[in-house]
Structures are given as C-alpha cells and as structure tokens.
C-alpha cells in the first residue's frame, strides 16, 4: 500500500485496528476544529457587516438593507449553489435519518455565506443553524474522505454540529447536548465521546480566536420560593410564545409559497417588511444579542407595553425573514423573544404585586430565554445547559429546570413535533435509529425476496399439479397465464385439499378453476412498513411480489421479522 493511501485510510493504522472509537476521537478533533473555524468566521463576518451598516439605520431608506441582504442570499442559494432557503437543521436531521449522514460538500459553506448576507443586513435570524449545517457537512465529507461506514459518518456529522454550536456560544456542554437531543435523537455511548471531544475542540478554537468570554454576563441573582413559584406562570407564557412563533413561521412560509413571484422577489418583500419594523423598533434587527445583554443586566429602560410589543415584533420579523426566503436560524431570535417575554412577565408581576420581594428582572429575562429555546426545540436539556453556559447563572438552576420542563411539555402537547421536526414528521421522513420505521426503511423487498416457489400454468391439470406438490416444500403456488406469463392468482393447499383425495377430479379440473384471483400483492418499490401493516390487517403470513404483471417471488412475515431483528441489532449495537 502506498504512503498516500495509508494516510487516507487511518483505519488501517495499527493504533486504530482494534477499536474504531480511537479513530472517531482522532477525526472528531479535526471535525470540531474545522467547524469551530467556520462558526468564528460567520460570527465575525456578521458583526462586520452589521456594524458597517449600523450608522445608516436612522436614515429613511435603511429599511431596504434587510431586503437587499435577503435578495442576495436567495439568489446565491438558488442560482449559484442550487439549495433552498431556510435554516438547514431539518436537512441535517433528514440526512442522518434516511441517508446515513450524507451531505454535499457545498453545504459546508453555502449557508454560512447566505446567512451572513441575511443577518448582517438586519434580517431577524441567528447564525446557529447555518453553522450546524456547515459543521455537519464538514463532518460528513471528512468521513467520506476517510471511507468510513454509515454509523461512523453519522457520528462525525454530530461532531460537526456539536463543534459549531459549542464554538458559536462558547458552550461545549450545550453543543454536545443539542447534538444528542435534537440532531441524532439518541444517547449512545459510541457517539457521546467523539461528540464531546469535537465540542471541546470547537470551543477552544472560539476561545483562542475570540477570547474566553461569557456571552451574557450579569450580577448574582438571589432566588426564593416566590420567584420559583412565579416561574411556572412564565413557563406557560413562553410555551404560548413558542407555539406562536412555530405557527407564524409556518403561516408565513405558506403565504410566500403560494405567490407566483420568483424566490428573490419574495425575499425582497419579506426583507422590506422586516426593515420597516426595524425602523421603528431597531431591537428586532439582526441577532438581537445587545438587547439581551441590557435586559439581563437590568438596564433595559423601555416600559411594559414597549417590551411586550418588541417581543411580538421580533416574532413577526423572524417569521418574515425565514418564511419569505431569508437564510438563518431560530436560536438567536428565540433567545431575544424569550428575554422580552421574561422581562414583560416580571414587570407585570411587579405592577400587580408591588409589595412582593421579587428577584431582579434580569433573572426572569434569562428564564424566558430558557423557556423559548426549550419549547420551540422541545429539547429541555439543550435549553437548560445553553442558558447556564452562556450566562454563568448556576444559581438559577432550579427555576431554570422548571421553566424548561413545563414549557417543553406544554409545547409537545399542543405541537407534537418541534419546529425542526414538524415538516419531516408530516412527510414521514423522520426515522430515528433503532425505531420501527427506521429499521424497516433500511430493509428492502429485494433482500427479503423468497424465490424458491414453483410457478404453475392456469391450464395445467390437477394430476400434473400433484406431481409438482410432491417436489415442493411450499404451500403456496403462483399461477401464471399460459401465453404471456402474467401473474393471475395463487393456489394454497388448504383451499384445494378436498380435490386431492378425489381421484375422479384429477383429469377433470384445471388450476385456473381452483386458483384465488383476489390476492393481495406487493411491488418491489413498496414501503415495508405498508407491507407489514397490510399483512396484519389481512392476517396474512406471505404475499406474492409482482413486477410488470409477473411473479418474481414471495415475501413472508417470518423472513421479514428475522431480518428486522438482525438489522435492529446492528443499529443499536454499542
């Protein structure tokens, strides 16, 4: 083997031959580092563009900025890289669910560029989902370069996503938890270690290039029983805001898709609307992290009505940005909306019960962030660890857990699937590893096909058929047309048993008179889940497989369940 080939396949190195976990850890460092670099590059680029345009935001024509950014973003995605708009996380989950984590190389940079144009110009979106898409694509293509198998590639896709989130937030635990809870949907010991290593690598890249800083620093909060009890009400409101944002995004996307305009014109319309909102309420533009800092520090001066209005405006602006063709994620908008909701809730409490001793309003802004993230992603652990890491607020862990848990539960009751999974679930594309649907999808009718059946002709005499029965170990016999070979029906021994002992019928009956023509059949392209359901509904143990009107074999429940068990062992093996 040449030196170049040996370098390309590290699995052949002596160190990695006995345990591929070492291989995954080694490559996870590479993936996490590359993902972290991509996240830092996007973050710096957005800040540069947004700061450059900031001095012009007070001018009347500044509302065109988000429109220009959205148009450039949509044209780049549609005309240059040939990808659709949106945040990209559902595409990553879909690739993990259906294609073993296969992602195109251009996805490693396409969403970075498009979201930079959208967010930097003032579009209401976040950089987190684009960097997840980028990191996942980096992991997928590095796995492809090293010729790794599907399971290893999925792990590296998770490593890329974890490294990206960890880098963008300087939050390694949140990056790891988000990947396991949302992207992969399973907590496997094989995945956790390399994903944790990638999270550390991505975080260290961010700290080296941007400094080890807590994103939203604040003073210490003193929590008492009254505050913890009040946080339950906040959880209900954040759940309502999460549902509103989810449905508003779906509504805007539906309205936009029904228009016959080109994608870039729709993006321009949405961008102009966002610009107009931002002209009167500048806090809704871009990521919106600056208002969060002010709210957590307790220095946000607007009154209760203004805060509530800003939260609603941020929901509308985010829906217009992402629903009408802009590119970006929902993490940052959710944090902003959550902080507005929490601050408004605290001020309402103070107004209604001024005599009570309430914690500083910044604490409820922080709890609102956790409630929105947990509710809209339906990922409570992600919400808890993300807020703790980006704020350093370990003292609020009790109400934080309570708000995240209650918000997630309420959202799941009203919207069974999160914003990332909703479209996949509706289309039947969400197949988590080890689940019934995923196992059946990884099997095919061709590999279950039983081809040892003896076919008979419709004009064959019963006497000749008896000789065939003696040579066969099957109870089913497919009947074909004499001239064309087309499948006509089936003969089952139980149905013709009386004829077998009546010698007078041997030369008087042909098989065409005995066959059952009302037979449920299967096509090679049919979904196995539908086939199994049809077997259960009709109490069948075997079904003929027919292609182009010709019998090609049988599929039996026994063979299907045997293959199912073996595939389940493969998917769930440590």
What does this structure look like?
- The protein has 25 helices and five strands.
- Mean pLDDT is 83; it is low at 1-7.
- It folds into three domains: 3-210, Clc chloride channel, CATH 1.10.3080.10; 225-430, Orthogonal Bundle (Clc chloride channel), CATH 1.10.3080; 438-572, Roll (CBS-domain).
- The chain starts with a helix and ends with a helix.
- The protein has 574 residues and is mainly alpha-helical.
- The longest helix has 35 residues, at 20-54.
- The chain has a three-stranded mixed beta sheet with strand order 1-2-3. The chain has a two-stranded antiparallel sheet with strand order 4-5.
- Strand 1, helix 21 and strand 2 (476-480) form a beta-alpha-beta unit.
Features:
CBS-domain; Clc chloride channel; 3-stranded mixed sheet; two-stranded antiparallel ribbon; 3 domains; 574 residues; mainly alpha; elongated
Short description:
The chain is mainly α.
Radius of gyration: 30 Å
Q: What is the H/E string? A: HHHHHHHHHHHHHHHHHHHHEHEEHHHEEH
> Which parts are unreliable, with pLDDT below 50 for 5 consecutive residues or more?
1-7
Strand order of the largest sheet: 1-2-3
Please outline the major beta sheet: 3 strands, mixed
Alpha-beta content class:
mainly alpha
Q: Class of the largest domain, according to the CATH hierarchy?
A: Mainly Alpha
Approximate shape: elongated
CATH topology of the largest domain: Clc chloride channel
Q: What is the mean pLDDT? A: 83
Q: Can you name the CATH architecture of the largest domain?
A: Orthogonal Bundle
Give the total of beta strands: 5
Helix content: 55-70%
Distance between the termini: 31 Å
In quaternary terms, these chains amount to single chain
Strand fraction: under 5%
Integer tally of domains: 3
| CATH superfamily placement of the largest domain | Clc chloride channel
Count of helix runs: 25
């Amino acid at each position: 083997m040449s030196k170049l080939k040996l370098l390309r396949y590290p699995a052949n190195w002596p160190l990695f031959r006995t345990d591929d976990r070492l291989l995954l850890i080694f490559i996870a460092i590479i993936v996490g580092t590359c993902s972290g670099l991509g996240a830092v590059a996007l973050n710096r680029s957005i800040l540069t563009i947004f700061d450059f345009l900031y001095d012009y935001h007070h001018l009347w024509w500044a509302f065109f900025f988000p429109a220009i950014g959205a148009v450039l973003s949509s044209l780049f995605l549609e005309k240059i890289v040939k990808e659709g708009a949106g945040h990209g996380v559902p595409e990553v989950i879909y690739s993990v669910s259906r294609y073993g984590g296969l992602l195109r190389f251009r996805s490693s940079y396409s969403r970075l560029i498009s979201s930079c144009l959208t967010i930097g110009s003032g579009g209401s979106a976040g950089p987190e989902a684009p960097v997840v898409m980028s990191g996942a694509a980096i992991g997928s293509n590095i796995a492809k370069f090293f010729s790794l198998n599907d399971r290893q590639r999925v792990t590296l896709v998770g490593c890329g996503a974890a490294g990206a989130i960890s880098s963008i937030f300087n939050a390694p635990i949140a990056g790891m938890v988000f990947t396991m809870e949302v992207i992969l949907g399973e907590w496997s010991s094989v995945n956790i270690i390399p994903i944790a290593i990638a999270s550390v690598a991505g975080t260290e890249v961010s700290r080296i290039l941007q400094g080890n800083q807590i994103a939203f620093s604040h003073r210490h909060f003193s929590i008492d029983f009254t505050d913890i009890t009040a946080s339950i009400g906040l959880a209900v409101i954040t759940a309502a805001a999460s549902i509103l944002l989810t449905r508003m995004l779906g509504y805007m996307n539906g309205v936009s898709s029904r228009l016959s305009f080109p994608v870039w014109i729709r993006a321009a319309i949405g961008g102009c609307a966002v610009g107009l909102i931002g002209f009167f309420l500048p806090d809704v533009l871009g990521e919106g992290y600056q208002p969060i800092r002010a709210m957590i520090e307790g220095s946000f001066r607007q009154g209760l009505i203004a805060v509530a209005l800003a939260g609603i405006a941020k929901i509308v602006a985010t829906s217009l940005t992402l629903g009408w063709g802009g590119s970006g994620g929902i993490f940052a908008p959710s944090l902003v909306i959550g902080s507005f909701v929490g601050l408004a809730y605290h001020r309402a409490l103070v107004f209604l019960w001024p005599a009570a001793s309430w914690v500083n309003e910044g604490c409820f802004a922080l709890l609102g962030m956790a409630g929105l993230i947990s509710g809209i992603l339906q990922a409570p652990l992600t919400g808890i660890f993300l807020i703790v890491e980006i704020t350093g607020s370990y003292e609020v862990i009790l109400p934080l857990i309570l708000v995240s848990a209650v918000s997630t539960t309420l959202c799941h009751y009203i919207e069974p699937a999160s914003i990332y999974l909703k479209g996949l679930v509706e289309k039947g594309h969400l197949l988590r590893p080890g689940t019934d649907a995923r196992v059946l999808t990884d099997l095919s009718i061709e590999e279950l096909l039983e081809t040892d059946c003896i076919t008979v002709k419709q004009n064959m005499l019963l006497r000749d058929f008896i000789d065939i029965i003696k040579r066969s170990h099957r109870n089913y016999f497919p009947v074909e047309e004499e001239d064309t070979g087309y499948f006509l029906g089936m003969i089952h021994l139980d149905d013709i048993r009386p004829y077998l002992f009546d010698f007078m019928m041997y030369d008087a009956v042909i098989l065409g008179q005995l066959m059952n023509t009302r037979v449920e059949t299967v096509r090679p392209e049919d979904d196995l889940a539908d086939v199994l359901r049809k077997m259960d509904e009709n109490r069948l143990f075997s079904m003929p497989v027919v292609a182009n009107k010709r019998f090609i074999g049988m599929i039996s429940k026994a063979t299907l369940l045997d293959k199912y068990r073996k595939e389940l062992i493969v998917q769930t093996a440590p």
